[in-house]
Write a structure and sequence with these properties.
This protein is an alpha+beta fold. The protein contains six helices and 17 strands. Helix content is 33%, strand content 31%. Bound molecules: nickel (II) ion.
Amino acid sequence: MLLQLKNILDPAKLDNIREMLAKVPFIDGKHSAGMAAEQVKNNEEMQQGTQQAQYLDQLVMGSLAENADFRSAALPLRVAQPVFARYTPGMRYGNHVDDPIMGGGMEKFRTDVAITVFLNAPQDYDGGELVIQSPFGEQRVKYAAGDAVLYPANSVHRVEEVSRGERLVAVIWLQSMVRDAAQRELLFELDQARNTLLQRDAQDLTAQQVDRAYVNLIRRWSDV
Ligand code: NI
């Protein structure tokens, strides 16, 4: 499932983020790529570990965590620090799958879900589409500033070459409570139905049955 998450970041937060990103150091993105991905990766990433990086991490992750569709679709268990990436003209990231395991030492986690948050407007740059291969063909994604796309991290994907302007994104990987993408998709749909029914009438027997089925499926399928 490829899901658009709208308005993760409001215009004030976006301004704040872009202003900070214009001042902080960026380094060659190859440092964080796996061996196969390194061959095709050409972008820049904000240096991690600075005070500004910590502030930006909290800003983006805090906003994402407030989004109900994000929580329902991702069922997050462990979440990585976001990577802030910049593509200027000539930069691209060829077809690849992301690393299966991220984090170091005791902080290792499996990457089940990937999220790209768009930090500037699509009119600000030419090219730079995120192209995700799916069973229904290639999906080309270039959303408004503040919107995000959520997709299974095992999908083959690429970023088309930027030919004008600058593409700014935050990329987040997480381990889900539910490893299997098809199960996550079923749970997401069922959760939508459950919420509609509970809002209509929380005492209704059908609403309660759907609610219990959802909760018990989480119990059955989560590997927490
Ligand atoms: Ni990737």
